[in-house]
Amino acid sequence: MRARHVLVTGGSRGIGREIARKMMQGGDIVTVLGRSEAQLEAVVGAGDAHHYVVSDITCEKELDNAFHRAVAQAGAINVLVNNAGGSSSARFADMAMDAFVQAFRLNVLGAARLCQLVLPSMVERRDGRIVNVASTAALRGYTYVSPYVTAKHALLGLTRSLALEYARYGITVNAVCPGFTESDLVRDSVERIVRKSGRPAEDIRTEFARFNPRGCLNSVEEVAVAAAFLCGREAGAINGIALPVAGGEVG
Questions:
Q1: Which GO terms describe its molecular function (predicted)?
Q2: CATH 3.40.50.720, domain 5-179+219-244, yes or no
């Protein structure tokens, strides 16, 4: 069976890097995309990916160029994992409307553009896998992160729409929805809250862990296993789902 070319965005650290590692372990050729060339070089140097391309996910021209470089390096993309994303926090009353624009650029529009870029060759081959790393924030609300929650709901809507539109071509489009995970995103959130509130970091981490009925944060490996499963060749009948990785926080 021919190795597939997998593109993972936000692949320089955290969940994205772990997904890249899992896909490599399964025999795929993996390209990671991110903003930091030094971090991406470290991922490839550690053997967690074969190739990398540098791009800001919010800049369409950069993203298009990075996509074409990835194809030139290792061929058409067979599997796309849209993992890049991020959040900011504030009370809704204090939130600048630009925060919603930025949240959509970071969490939705880059993913949508890459889907546009990969789908023609997938349609031609009548085969492909797209996994969008959403969040439990795509399935419920959280306080103080309304732009992020809104954007992740939109990403799930995109997932479901594309799943229906492209199922006839043997392409699946699914979402993984992690709860609070021991990742860079959560660590950044903890640091931001510490700066704003002066509260101990461990207290904030404990609050995050309480959302999970297990009383702990998820691991990046647990999220990567779920994503790799949905990317599998055998997962052709699984399409348009939102798979929570959250210990029972959401159904």
A1: 3-oxoacyl-[acyl-carrier-protein] reductase (NADPH) activity
A2: yes
